[in-house]
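ok trying again, last paste got cut off:
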Amino acid sequence: MDGKLRGSVLVLVSAALFGIMGVMAKLAYDEGANALFVLTMRFSIAAAILWAFNLVPVRRQKVKVTVHQGLALFIIGGVIYFIVSMCYFSAINYIPVSLSSMIFYLYPVIVNAFMLLVLKERAAAKQVVALVMAMTGSVLMMWARGMYINWIGVLISLCASVFYSAYIILLGSKYAKILDGLDSVTVTTYLATFAAVSMAVTGALTGQLQVRVSPWVWASIIIIAVFSTVISSIMFYLGVREVGSSRASILSTFEPVVTVSMGVLVLSETLAPTQFIGMVLVISAVTIMNMNTAGLKETTGS
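nice, full thing came through this time. structure:
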């Protein structure tokens, strides 16, 4: 198989595995689990698998970090990613997975808006068009006539998107330069570990880990931890090496398509026509932004 094609397939499968995560969490909730329990188990299992992978002889040197790198990874994983995950997994208690996924997927729009409005980057025509499309799509998604929208869920999901945007902006800033010597698998290992610690401490303090769950809950958690966290992250990492980060970001727009489709097929969620149009506009806007980023990188030779 051609390298570009192989990389594209890896990124698409990774996006699909990420895309089923919200649906699996919703199925776990239906069996009596709560968000904090699911997330604690998710990151604990994922961290254990990643550490087992990283402790093989060929990986042992790569997994070592300095104190300053460890502190940066704790802030990103134990604080920011903790907030992102808790918000996203809590939001689906209030609103459909498909709607929560699309609101969360506004993060490229938020990042672009931050770059234009706060950092005063020069605006390309495509970026402006995409921002208008995203704003219009967001309104259509949340103002569907005749459908009840729980605004608490919308706000929590938006909070997840904002904090994930902050996570991306932070990783691209000078403050994250300290992590430049680490590969993606090492970073993912520490983020999962610190997220697991934060989840476990919060769960122990609030008593939300003391739940009796069915085997179906454990099946959902294992799918989330193994497939939607570990395998998807590694596949994305391998895919990016083949096709580059810019094209990988474009292919990743497949993720919300999978989530919305699974929400309709598995959870019997319904979409009003205006909501469907809004989702198409948001996905199109994100794709345009990612394509614009890819074009800029190609012209600058980076």
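cool. Residues 215-243 form the longest helix (29 residues). Residues 295-302 have pLDDT under 50 and may be disordered.
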